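Module 6 notes. Inverse folding takes a fixed backbone as the condition and produces residue identities as the prediction. Think of it as a translation problem where the source language is geometry and the target language is the twenty amino acids. Below is one complete input and output pair. Work through it position by position during the lab.
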């Protein structure tokens, strides 16, 4: 049996993608598998920081109007909870108008969002690229303008702050698995067991999936971390800062149909 620990920490024998979610390791001592035997690979454990951005360049606009004057602001790309969104919008509106115009509050019983307006004649504009979209609001029009004094508006649909539902682990030496209807090399799925941004997801697989290996000589090994739709994860927290570290432990062992555990 061979046991390997794969990390995205830079090293001379690695090629790591810009997002920090793909690692190709070149082995100094290639693994030679017996041609007369069958081998399988298992993912035994995974430690991954929950940092996939839910606000990106496609949905980070916050636009509002006060007494006919429109202001816009692009929220920095990153992973946000509703309190984080509330705080950053409050700071920006105070800087632009001298007061906190809006307060965003979650309604946990319905997974909706409530926006409180501090004054009348204030609108929040809605669009496809607005942060209001993931908070559960429509993608066009505006809210708040009908208010003659202070008041609030609640969404009619659920907020979608946690866009990452499952982390898929892909490996280049196996085949036979499927992602939706397409054949792939997915070797494991890591459920999102945390909700706080930048928490550590720690998964130890009790009954790890056995994946057939289709090569007899392993001189390189590539691991990719993907979201549930097959897109590469962004371990940079949405920016150009050093990536968050992750590691997985795999084993390669001879296939034994009499002992599958």
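Target side of the pair, the amino acids:
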């Amino acid at each position: 049996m061979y046991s390997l620990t794969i990390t995205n920490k830079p090293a001379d024998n690695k090629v790591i993608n810009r997002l920090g979610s793909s690692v190709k390791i070149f082995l100094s001592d290639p693994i030679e598998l017996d041609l007369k035997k069958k081998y399988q690979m298992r993912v035994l454990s995974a430690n991954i920081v929950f940092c996939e951005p839910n606000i990106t360049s496609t949905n980070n606009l916050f636009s509002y109007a006060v007494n006919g004057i429109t202001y816009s602001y692009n929220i920095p790309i990153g992973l946000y909870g509703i309190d984080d969104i509330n705080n950053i919008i409050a700071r920006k509106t105070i800087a632009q108008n001298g007061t906190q115009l809006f307060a965003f509050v979650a309604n946990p019983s319905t997974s909706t969002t409530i926006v409180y307006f501090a004054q009348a004649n204030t609108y929040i504009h809605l669009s496809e690229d607005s942060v209001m979209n993931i908070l559960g609001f429509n993608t066009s029009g505006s809210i708040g303008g009908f208010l003659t004094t202070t008041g609030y508006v609640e969404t009619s649909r659920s907020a979608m702050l946690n866009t990452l539902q499952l982390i898929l682990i892909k490996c280049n030496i196996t085949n036979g698995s499927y992602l939706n209807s397409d054949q792939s090399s997915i070797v494991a799925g890591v459920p999102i067991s945390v909700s706080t941004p930048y928490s550590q997801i720690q998964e130890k697989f009790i009954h790890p999936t056995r994946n057939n290996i289709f090569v007899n000589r392993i001189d390189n090994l590539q691991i990719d971390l993907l979201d549930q739709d097959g897109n590469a994860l962004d371990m940079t927290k949405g920016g150009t800062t050093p990536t968050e570290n992750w590691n997985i432990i795999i084993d390669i062992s001879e296939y034994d149909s009499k002992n599958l555990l």
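Reference fact for the lab report: Residues 61-154 form one domain.
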